[in-house]
Amino acid sequence: MRSQENSGTLLEMPVGKPLSSLSNEELRQVHARASQRHQSYVKAGRRLDMTRGKPSAEQLALSQPMLALPGENDWRSEDGLDCRNYGGPLTGLAEARRLLAPLAQVAPDQVLVGGNASLAVMHDCLAFALLHGVPGGDAPWSRQEDVAFLCPSPGYDRHFGLCEGLGVRMIPVALTGQGPDMDQVERLVASDPAIKGMWCVPKYSNPTGETYSAETVERLAAMPTAAADFRLFWDNAYGVHDLTETSAALPSILERAAAHGRADRPFVFASTSKMTFAGAGLALFAGSAVNLRWLTLCLARRTIGPDKLNQLRHVRWLRDFDGLLALMARHRQLLAPKFALVREILARDLDGLGIATWTDPKGGYFISLDVMDGCAQRTVAIAAEAGLTLVPAGQTFPYGQDPNDRNIRLAPSFPGLEDLRVITECVANSTILAATDALLRQRGL
Ligand code: PMP
Description:
Bound molecules: 4'-deoxy-4'-aminopyridoxal-5'-phosphate
Radius of gyration: 23 Å
CATH class of the largest domain: Alpha Beta
Strand content: 5-15%
Number of domains: 2
Order of helices and strands: HEHHEHEHEHEHEHEEHHHEEHEEH
Number of strands: 12
């Protein structure tokens, strides 16, 4: 599916200098070429999709042998539990807790291995906090007229959807490349008791790819909060999803919070969704003994127990944390070339034009593209006309509102390399078309 219509790239254009510095005539030329290319996409009538960061079929195939596990004659846990039946601790099988504890950077006895989706565990924690309150608080959160969460933005749209769905007010907080703007965070949490929590994707953040610095983690662990029952919702979804051979360093939030006498502050989440099978993996919660007891008590009313056979299947397949890291290295081999291709095309088509910047993530699932202010929605709409579905602009912000209308989340994992080439060329062309539209309008042309 090589894109013939773009094989000339944009080199014929007067590029290499900012579009804003072009003469009216040059700008019109760039606009005309981008329009022409856009029309060729429209005519080609393709349907391409880059909305969600899903693993590709090749990635899923890496864990294909897991479908035959644990096998017809293998259903007992190491404690002798019959995994086919009800029973056993709500915290999950001991061997599954041991397997996944390193993801939470904590000892296995601080870990609960639950169902298939960490998002569901996050939902439960927030819903239980609203309904029952959390340790250290004196009432259910919902008794308070106003409950708010800090939302580093751009961030994960489903975190924001959870808050919106459960009536939690969202306060956007800026990201710095080293995590959230901690001056802003400290000021807000110290003064406002309505702020009960904060979303954090501390490693290879969705979508910016940044990893929180040691200083950021330290300040989050130590900061005084007006709400005594404040919680960090620490979603370490991409803790082992490296795109290079070096894994970014992230201090253990549970350890750091405990060191500051705030052991109950973090609720840690992770899952194997992007390791084994998305939607059929294992989710993890980790926290202080107090938090673990709280969640277990809440969960006891909700479920008789997790899917122990899936836990056994994962233990048999991954064996131990080294086995899990070896699998992640195979994912990297599939993912890294896709990220490299997207970056190569963006650089080729957009570098120097002064209308876009994009991230160079060392892990995770996304490249975050910032187009010219006020142009993200238009860029996504132009791509849609060309047959490419992107995540709606704004969705990476609370309430779907990007104050600058500039952020677009690119998700290179799912498409094959040839589709990815077409998709990225189309993104670049849509970016240019939206920007030249805006610049021509600004000049009254
Ligand atoms: N957290 C983040 C930051 C994500 O990007 C995603 C999507 N993969 C999830 C959680 C969802 O994870 P799960 O499948 O475990 O619900």
